[in-house]
Amino acid sequence: MATMDTPSAIVEPARTGVQHAYDVLILDASNKQSLACVRSLGRIGLRVAVGECATECDAAQSALSFRSRYAARSLVLPDVAAGADAFAAAVVGFVREHRVHVVIPTNDGAITALAPYRARLAALGCTLALASDATLAIANDKDRTLAVAERLGIDYPRSMRIESFDDLSAVVDAFEFPFVLKPTVSFPRDAPVRLQVTEVIDEVEAISAIQTYLSSGSGVLAQQWASGRREGVSLLMVAGEVRAACAHVAYRTSPALGGASVLRESIPLLPDLYDPAVRLVQEIGLDGVCEVEFRRDATGRPLLMEVNARLAGTIENALHSGVDFPLLLWQWAAGQPITAPAGYRIGVRTRWLHGDLRWLRDNQRRVGRPDSVSRTRALSSFAAEFLRTRHLDCVDWRDLRPALAELRATTRAVLKPRN
After folding, report:
1. Tens digits of residue pLDDT in 206-241
2. CATH superfamily of the domain spanning 158-224
3. Sheet holding 179-183, edge to edge
4. How far apart are alpha carbons 224 and 182 in whole angstroms?
5. Predicted TM-score of the model (pTM)
6. Which parts of 338-400 are beta strand (E)?
7. For all residues of the chain together, what is the average pLDDT?
8. What are phi and psi of 45, to 5 degrees?
9. What is the pLDDT of residues 328-350, one digit of tens each?
10. 287 and 8 in contact (C-beta within 8 Å)?
11. Residues 370, 178 contacting (CB under 8 angstroms)
12. CA-wise closest residue to 180 among 204, 153, 150, 160
């Protein structure tokens, strides 16, 4: 695509008759996509508040966005895992007291907790920067997403639903090990943690994973394992129209299967990715920012993995490539003119060093499993990226405190003795 820099943002005062103390409250402050959002919006003069659950604030990274020079206010919230309603009530209370214009959650738990409170926020003059509840119900449920894909003729891995342990034998007969087990909902409302996709290499591992998903209130989906490249398309949709797009390939993720990308590169909007991604989100009816993930099979055919109806962890790659999705999301939610670019730069590599170190550590322990490489290849590939990759997630020379905090967390994690 042709390269074009993002036009200068035009930020008008909110014309709602309400004087807003904060233009935006960005939640999930420990997430690096939240930090990218804080920086993007703070630099253009918006007054930004950031929030995070108490447990995450006590963790090693200590809520990265709290350290940013662009955060005008830090808010410690009740743990969403301990009680979604208490978390949501605290957010609503802050919005009421401080007249917040827009709330942006970036984590599935916060999204699940706040969605039922959308009308209450709206009554306070605040917009929750998410697609509608009806479309979120489809996008956040892998079963329902695949049903839409089936109707549209979009390819996805061969899949079977597991309702109980009695269904496992049929799956084992149909699939060869290894295969993939997925929760149909990544963050059920009362689940203590986000449920992760996992590969299983025998029945013992399959039984353990199924038990975890079922006991957390999620259904279970078994899928054939795809071994090719992980690719994704990020979109800003407004009334069914694509206003901005950026595609990437994820070379490494942590965890290795279905985890956060730790090394990725911007790629062109390939028709076999872009066309099905757009048709899918249009059929679902998603508005706002979303990411559609694919993985290619051994023949190179892209297979739909899932839809993330939020700012995803790959957002810094889009930012460095010239597409400022945090700004676009705020403009959409705040009813501002949308200043989308006409294109973006191809071949921009970005790396999350903390996550890449975790990938390196985990790979050394799981050599021989799916999505692993030899120890020698892992070490040489990890080292080579210091020469190939210019941009590190969380590192900004104008705002160094979050990066220093993450460096301290990374050092502690590396030096921590193994049990």
Report:
1. 999 999 998 888 889 999 999 999 999 999 999 999
2. ATP-grasp fold, A domain (3.30.1490.20)
3. 159-162, 220-224, 179-183, 198-200
4. 11
5. 0.89
6. 349-351, 391-392
7. 90
8. 100, 5
9. 999 999 999 999 898 999 999 99
10. no
11. yes
12. 160
